[in-house]
Specification:
819 residues, alpha/beta, six-stranded parallel β-sheet, five-stranded parallel β-sheet, 22 strands
Length: 819
Amino acid sequence: MNTETLTPEHLRKINAYWRAANYVSVGQIYLYDNPLLKRPLQLSDVKPLVVSHWGTTPGQNFIYVHLNRAINKYDLDMFYVAGPGHGGPAIVGNVYLEGTWSEVYPDVTQDEEGLKKLFKQFSFPGGISSHVAPTTPGSIHEGGELGYSLSHAFGAAFDNPGLIVACVIGDGEAETGPLATSWQSNKFLDPITDGAVLPILHLNGYKISNPTVLARIESEELEQFLRGCGWAPRFVEGNDPDTMHECMATAMDSAIEEIRQIQAVARNKHDPSRPRWPMIVLRSPKGWTGPTVVDGLQIEGTFRAHQVPMLVDPEHPEHVPLLESWMRSYKPEELFDQSGRLIPELAELAPRGDRRMGSNPHTNGGLLLHDLKMPDFHDHAVHVASPGAVEGQDTQVLGTFLRDVSKLNQGQRNFRIFGPDETLSNLLGAVFEVTHRQWDARQFGNDEFLAPQGQVLDSMLSEHQCEGWLEGYLLTGRHGLFNSYEAFIRIIDSMFSQHAKWLKVCLDLPWRREISSLNYLLASHVWQQDHNGFTHQDPGFLDHVINKKADIVRAYLPPDANCLLSVFDHCLRSRNYVNVVVAGKHALPQWLTMDQAVIHCTEGIGIWQWASNDQGGEPDVVMGCCGDTPTLEILAAVSILREHFPELRIRVVNVVDLMKLQSSSEHPHGLNELDYDSLFTKDKHIIFGFHGYSSLIHRLTYRRTNRNLHVRGYKEEGTITTPFDMRVQNDLDRFHLAIDVIDRLPQLGSRGAYLKQTLKDKLIEHKHFISEHGQDMPEILNWKWDSRSMEQRKLGGAPSSAAASGVRHPNPAITRKAS
């Protein structure tokens, strides 16, 4: 493209603004003092340690100034996502030049002293990082890890019909799996109700020390690839600034006008047909306008320009004049007045007010956040006449609640459910009674729940995209949740880490408003993989989450559907957290009424008095549980022990809020020492059944007084087998748990030895049974908590049935004594 989009005067000003941005970028990388070069540069003016990235920076400055021009020309609501995150000098510099930085950080003024502070703070102790971060106004994208820029951009565009998100994608970043997949996100963007994403693929040819793939393939092949992904690319290629400015302005205008045309046709004719959205491919030299040759080596246009293009330190004093020459090539005396302020004719090129990309309200999503309209979760309660009297599928019950959340918020268009093709599998299908899966590609007659508009995005089998979309959606002021198979949420471990780090930094930035929490629902979990087997068994996301700052992370393992409803109502109302909720989808006993569940979840941990019989004195043993399946097995073990040892005093403690186990000095939800000891005692043995890896419970409780903690959890044993056999293989079954108690209570003596032998026999019987019949034994499948029998034993009465536990007494003498 080479037309006369720009007048000569406009071209001159745009080029000057770009020079100013480049000058400010180089100053941030190198300078400690002398920001306007009013005297000859000296080594003492340079930072003692120079660390940053230059290669992508001039190209991003080039893009930024042209986006500013487009915003002014078309009055756009637009912001900038910087995929090449280490182009921090570019985004910080442009936010400073447009005036936003000084408004957010008043001590960094728009004058010589402010310019000096801006330069010094960059990659400097006590300052800001070298990449785009939460400290950067106008950013919703952490630049510390590559791959997620385009999915963040699409998440921001969903349900924002007036917004255009300009997303700059580095050619190194384009080689990552998440980014390579995110080109397909255009199949989920509705031109009627959503905004637009303008990808700008920045090809500068190199990564840290290697060429990039997309820069080395033929232009025809690149165009075919992008068109095959559904895009209509415009190519801007070269290195001459005047020519490149003209080409970029023409390409930018063409892209913006096509976006507006697409949206106008779709909205006026109510035509949701998937368009071929425009995008721009910018091919420019790596380290453009920087040093050409240093010490005989070519810098500009090579991988050597990626980071710091030349060392300026006591070992290389001869580079000081080269740095000064480079900086003076931008002619700062033409760009800044004597006070250090950008001259007025250039300052006027930046948009005004909230149209500036650094101050766009969408980039500080809490400014736009509205509370969800919430249904009464009590309306979805499972009726529980007595503990364990009925069974229920927890996530299926939650699905009806989420259906009502979706329905109530359709008008506000601020709530979405994300997941990789698992909404139905995780039994949340009730939401499709009121909404659809958003899908803008072709449809066939036998498709289900697909429509151009919908509140569910689960038609792409990519955890990376679902996570990135949701993060972009939350960061721009909306609400949502991510439902996933527990094992495969691990795919986005690092994405979670980046978001948690983002929230942590935001806590120290008063100008960053709180956003809705990132909510995970992990279902199809480790203990319920009857046909998927070992590959689908990994509860380790909890371990990963707990490593993050206590101010940010929360983990909940509700034991039944009513507790799950109470927990999720809380999570959807919360702010600035990452909430991880683990829940099962298979039928399991329901333990608590809704009123009991609300109290239990509010406390987060508590003694289940109806399952305990130690009210008259100290317990002989504490049975703890966390998670739906461990709760079932602990209670089944309790029933065995109380059947055979009615005099044994057992306390049952259930944990919903995992962080209650940690000390209050470590986590705001943690119990203080007095409260922990009142639940678990100071010295009694604790047999604890846990959903995940047992080491996590030991990590959380290592400071506690009571060291007699014995945890059963997942220990990397599993295959395609029955639900109960999964527990047996990991020693989390009722028989192993009861043996654990026997082994630690010597007062049970000979009776304990006989029962232990019987329980071992049961384990062998179980193995033979499932090998022959392919399902668990009837006494396992049909086991029920016998509330009447337990209550009689509390009062000293006879049990209603000697077989209530599913384990017969080992010999007649014990049977007569127990009776």
